[in-house]
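Researcher: Batch entry, complex prediction.
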Amino acid sequence: MKKLADKEVIQKIKNGEIDYFSVIVEEYTAQIYRYIKAKLFQKLDVDDLVQNTFISFYKAISWFDETKPMLPYLYQIAKNELKMYYRSHKETVSLDEGLIETKIGEDDFYTEDYSPILEKLSKEQQEILQLLQKGYSYEEIAKKCDRPINTIRTIIRRTRLQVKRLYEKT
Amino acid sequence: MRKLEKKILKKVYSFETKRTITEIILRIGSILVVIAAGTVVVVSLLRQLIEQQTLDMLEIFQEDKEIIKQYLSDVLNTFYQELPKNETIWVIILFIFFILLILFFIKNFEKINNRIKALKIYWFK
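Model: Structure tokens for the complex:
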């Protein structure tokens, strides 16, 4: 296969000559690999993310404007893959196993030991924690606070992490 | 790195194989469905025309040119009035749809053909 410009390669792939995708893979794998590896250190995950990047690019190739450079587009896909990776590996603390339910009972929610931590939370966070403690579901809390359910989820997740961090400090 | 490149290409070819097979099945399937639906509607239309003896009017074309000239507009007018409207509209719609499907198929034939060739080379080399 003779050396072709990126533009010609993309045109050929768009025309169904998918064997030319190997040209792109050979040319850019090393760069994308280095880029992802610089942000991740587990080799197995790096390989997976590089693969996902190229497959996402292949799926989107019919909409790709061949007059534009390919590498920034690949970097952008890699960046998005990394974002998705971090999102799926986000640190979470379950309330069932976390501090609040195991260490703070229903009646002694504001005990002397934990009140300094809880006082550092905003009024809204405290209110939501109280409702959660009383056994309200996310949906019920959302209705009560007149906020979207996803916002409530986010507030609860952040509050848990904040409480954990504050607890570890004390 | 070479191993990773091979893995990427294998995934791409697997994805493309599935996509091409689905596309071919959908294209051929839709053409066959349109042909089947068209046949049903045309048969129903012809049956009604035979029952109404509307087709007998077309025997005028076996007559002399003078007679054809004299009665053609009347015959065509009556023929149009006796045509079952719903079935005729369906036949026209299905025919247009069929033509569009064939045109799309012809337009994309080169692309699909290239893809099949590339897949064949990759999987059976």
